Amino acid sequence: MIELTGHSLTINQLKRILIDKEKVSISEKSMQKVRESRYAVENIVADKETVYGINTGFGKFSDVIIDQEHVEKLQLNLIRSHACGIGEPFPEIVSRAMIVLRLNALLKGFSGVRAVLVELLAELINKNVHPVIPQQGSLGASGDLAPLAHLALVLIGEGKVYDGAGKPVNAAPILTDKGIQPIVLQAKEGLALINGTQAMVAMGIVNYIEAEQIALDSEWIAGMTIEGLEGIIDTLHPAVHEARGYQQQMAVAERMREWLEGSSLVTKQGEKRVQDAYSLRCIPQVHGASWQALDYVKEKLEIEMNAATDNPLIFEEGKLVISGGNFHGQPIAFAMDFMKIAVAELANISERRIERLVNPQLNDLPPFLSPEPGLQSGAMIMQYAAASLVSENKTLAHPASVDSIPSSANQEDHVSMGTIASRHAGMIIQNARRVLAIECICALQAIEYRGVENAAPKLKEKWNKMRKAVPSITEDRIFSEDIEKVNQALNPLINTSNFIEKGSYIS
Predict the structure, then answer these.
(1) Is 52 part of the annotated catalytic residue set?
(2) Which residues carry this modification: 2,3-didehydroalanine (Ser) (predicted)?
């Protein structure tokens, strides 16, 4: 069980909650801060002070004072009116992450919600009740208003949730079946639920989990390609990378040396050629740069997942209530745009290695790795597919964060578009993993032509495992199915126990 404090949640802990469905508990110290913050809100209401979000309208309506008897209706209207998400829902794992992150933010004790509300969020997590949340409709400032409003609907017994089999159903009967009692939102609570960056951050963390695995998988797959092309091992010498000084570049080179240790397929400078093409020679430099970006993304995500991002924030036991802008998603928008470029580049260089594996003008392997060149096309169109995916990624990699459209009658006149950036990063990741799957299939075949017995021991082990997912190319077949099998084998979010039962999970 993971204890949530509002201050110490890590990506590794969140992975356990998301993938292993580990339950959460609430720190008693943090719960006491929640109670103190709520007491301050109740005093503000009782004293009839005018404070944004407690007894005023929202956005451009912030100057409209709301009578005390309408405070509950104000919060209900807020959630219903803001629940205008559009399009396909976020993956269920992202919905679960959003609940965890919203709960963790409220536990910081700056939001003024009741203990019963944070307990209800924890109950949703521990009973696997996940709201159905449309992906589109957030500007990424004033918080992820529309997505988080769909989350908040479930707390009041409205909206939709997943039924356990991935099907959207009305929330009310599921809550009843699970013994979960909806609540009536009180002063400040509706706003506290939707002012935040939890949609973009939840999507961002799931993206990071997948992108990190893609970066690791790209190394052993590239190692197989080096063997298939009898690449030059000298370029991985530690002196080369120490001379430049980037830690990530040095780390990639070191891992590549470990993968290729004991290989009889690699060559030395001058044995077959003096230099390899950049897509082989510059793997540590290019992959290392992507790792630099991913390290930056991880740092920003782990700050944001423990941040207070709603508005207003309550300090000094209610003596200081400040309307600020911590809901603005600019830091995460930049991070997601950076991630898009980093992952797209892993796919770009992978596609160039695919070309070197299949192009008979660039190697001495059978043309397009075909078992009968001419009669059978082999991997020819797999390279087309990879080229299409990397081209699509170049469009998706356009930075969302450079755009802004004013909203709420120009009260909210600069927004981050961070949620768009996180969604597009997710699309790039899915494309990139499929490009790597294609490189993997081609590299498996190339090593087979060279002689699997000559491969490095660690890569020979990978070769044997991957061959359980995709057989050797002995004749043309529907390669789309092969690509998807390898894609699933490389996906860290796949239910591994189910996959093992099917005999296709690759560790």
Answers:
(1) yes
(2) 142
